[in-house]
Amino acid sequence: MTQLPQDITRLDTALLNFPEGEVLASYADILKRAKLIHKATYFGNIKHEKVTIVFAGEAAEVYHIYTTIWLHYSGHIFLKGDITIPVARILDIRFD
């Protein structure tokens, strides 16, 4: 997935359909993502700071959203308004 991510709003994220399947190729990348999600959840809950989440949708579409991660539970991250993104679809988390 080398294309540039499209900017998307949190509310538009709720309208997306996410296919099943992991987007990262290696176990090391999956562990790195887990650590980033943990750190981003801390930033959201304790520091009330936002992060940039880069994730894959359908048909190899890549998006990014600047928001707060409130919870990581049961294979999903939860954003404000009970909007979720499957962890397996997350390519990167950036602390801007």
Could you explain the architecture of this structure?
This protein is of the alpha+beta class and 96 residues long. It is 26% helix and 31% strand. It is built from 2 helices and 7 strands. Strand 5 and strand 6 form a beta hairpin. It is globular, with a radius of gyration of 12 Å.
Give the low-pLDDT segments: none
Write the H/E string, N to C: EHHEEEEEE
Got a strand count? Answer: 7
Sheet with the most strands, sense and barrel status? 4 strands, mixed
Proportion of residues in extended strands: 25-35%
In round numbers, the mean pLDDT is: 94
The end-to-end distance, rounded to whole angstroms, is 21 Å
The number of helical elements comes to 2
SS-based class = alpha+beta
Form type: globular
Radius of gyration: 12 Å
Tell me the strand order in the biggest sheet. 1-3-2-7
Helix content: 25-40%
Tell me the layout of helices and strands.
Layout: E1 6-7, H1 10-13, H2 27-47, E2 51-56, E3 62-67, E4 71-73, E5 76-79, E6 83-86, E7 90-94
Parallel strand pairs: 1-3
Antiparallel strand pairs: 2-3, 2-7, 4-5, 5-6
